[in-house]
Amino acid sequence: MAIRVLLVDDQPLLRTGFRMILEAEQDIAVVGEAGDGLQALDQVRALQPDVVLMDIRMPRMDGVEATRQITGPGRDGPAKVLVLTTFDLDEYVVEALRAGASGFLLKDAPAQELVQAIRVVASGEAMLAPSITRRLLDKYAAKLPSGEEPVPDTLHTLTDREVEVLKLVAKGLSNAEIAADLFVSETTVKTHVGHVLTKLGLRDRVQAAVYAYESGLVRPGGH
């Protein structure tokens, strides 16, 4: 089955370029396009894409709100959102990740990187270098809680080891690096990450990193 992709960008030329790149791949099918967030919502309902390639800054409804409605409670389908941005440190990207995006990609990324990102997101993984997640969250730490707020009740559902794993995910470590740090197998780490996501009701490790910052478990700039 081909990965069904919806292209959302207010610039027709960019959508055309993305379409040409993606339609050259046998396992990807571009099922539609939209020029703003409102059109995107209609297209998601009508076309049921697997992945939405989402611009952030658009008229009528921006990509953050569209992402929130596509991936939020009561969503119409299993669509994953891959956010496109011109800037690698864009405060709107943080909001999009909070809203449920599975990752982000720069608009000038190489074609093969775009293709790979879509495959990764479609498979249910997060497409975002952990180090970039951390830089984003550190940069916009002023928008996050101070860390003096009470710890969320949900955090108490985690075991001590799961809390350890969550901290390391938020600090930008890959599964392999976490495994080496904790002297366990990578499979064990994947199991722990899976338990963390399930217990906290999170979609992927990107949202787990955001949660760790927002809950005060990890402090901006801390190690």
TrEMBL record:
InterPro entries assigned: CheY-like_superfamily, NreC/VraR/RcsB-like_REC, Sig_transdc_resp-reg_C-effctor, Sig_transdc_resp-reg_receiver, Tscrpt_reg_LuxR_C, WalR-like
SUPFAM superfamilies: C-terminal effector domain of the bipartite response regulators, CheY-like
Annotated HTH luxR-type domain residues: 151-216
Record has Electron transport as a keyword: no
Modification 4-aspartylphosphate occurs at: D55
Annotated ranges, domain Response regulatory: 4-122
Keywords: DNA-binding, Phosphoprotein, Transcription, Transcription regulation
Name of the featured protein: Response regulator transcription factor
Native species: Streptomyces zingiberis
Lineage: Bacteria, Bacillati, Actinomycetota, Actinomycetes, Kitasatosporales
